[in-house]
Design goal:
Keywords: Transcription, Transcription regulation. By secondary structure, this protein is an alpha+beta fold. The chain contains twelve helices and ten strands. Helices cover about 50% and strands about 20% of the residues.
């Protein structure tokens, strides 16, 4: 990293550290901007990424999409162009040098607006590509990100300046040679934009039976084309995608509500509790009851460690 880049990164680090007094995800007053802090290496965390830009100020993180592994650190950034069920894990962190990062959520209407205003500066085709990308962080994008982040220290400026800072960030990302993925999802009528609609429907109706023929008809594609384009974007088939969404939601229900595994299975769309238990164990490494016990034990251990540090 050159001297200027390192100076900008340290300023980004300072602000994120200032507004993250403890580990976890912290929303800011800037719409769509959140900070993340972790003082220890994490267990795999299962979640669904929204369309967003992720930048690391300190440490590194690994994200798994299906069988694919994406790692990013202060020299790179990650973009998610569509809702994707991922597994994330912090790989570099300690009490002295915690993992610190930010996430900026994208509005596809904002992206489309930037594309339309850019004329020949940004060209969009009709190809599709993976909805998750890791790219090299350059000076212009880091500078734009830092301008948005600095607004958390001057809240009165947020309503006026945040939309302009966000617009520049989107423009800089779209200029990047690896940004075709993000661009396609904002172009009305593109294959990627239609797949995004299918993804949204599966996320909304995950507990209902999945009928690929109906999804294909809604997307104005043949069944085989839908399957191919969907796998190109998400790295998995529609059935595999739905399964991950269902199991993540079931795990959340088990942890946050007083229900048993059978009830969680029915709520997310499984008809057979034994089938649910097998698939749950395949994804999370152990059956629901044992996994829930381990999760609760981990939370207690983390609370104990946090108390000892204080």
């Amino acid at each position: 990293m050159d001297e200027w880049f390192e100076k900008q990164r340290k300023e980004l680090l300072r602000i994120i550290e200032k507004f993250t007094p403890k580990d976890g995800t912290h929303d800011t007053e800037v719409p769509g901007l959140r900070f993340i802090r972790s003082s220890r290496l994490s267990e795999p965390v299962y979640s669904v990424y929204e369309p967003s830009l992720c930048v690391v100020a300190q440490g590194s993180k690994v994200v798994m999409l299906g069988q694919e592994v994406y790692q990013y650190d202060p020299s790179s950034y990650l973009t998610a162009s569509v809702q994707l069920p991922i597994t994330g894990q912090v790989m570099e962190a300690s009490n002295e040098t915690p993992y610190l990062s930010l996430q900026i959520l994208f509005d596809m209407n904002q992206i489309l607006d930037v594309i339309q205003a850019s004329d020949d500066a940004i060209r969009a085709g009709n190809e599709t590509s993976r909805g998750l990308k890791v790219s090299q962080l350059n000076d212009t994008l880091l500078d734009a990100v830092l301008r948005l982040v600095k607004l958390v220290e001057t809240p009165r400026d947020i309503p006026v300046l945040a939309p302009y800072a966000m617009r520049e960030i989107i423009y800089r990302v779209l200029q990047n040679e690896h940004s075709a993925s993000l661009m396609q999802f904002a172009v009305i009528g593109s294959h990627a934009q239609r797949i995004a609609g299918v993804v949204e429907k599966i996320n909304r109706d995950f507990a209902l039976p999945l009928r690929v023929e109906e999804l294909a008809a809604e997307a104005r594609m043949s069944t085989s084309s839908l399957y191919d384009y969907f796998k190109e974007v998400t790295g998995m088939s529609p059935i595999q995608y739905q399964k991950q969404i269902r199991l993540q939601e079931a795990r959340r229900l088990l942890f946050s509500e007083s229900i048993d595994a059978a009830e969680a299975a029915f709520q997310v769309g499984y008809e057979s509790p034994s089938h649910f238990s097998r698939e749950y164990a395949r994804m999370f490494g152990m059956p629901p009851v044992r996994d829930l016990r381990r999760l609760r034990s981990t939370i207690v251990d983390e609370m104990t460690i946090s108390a000892e540090i204080k």
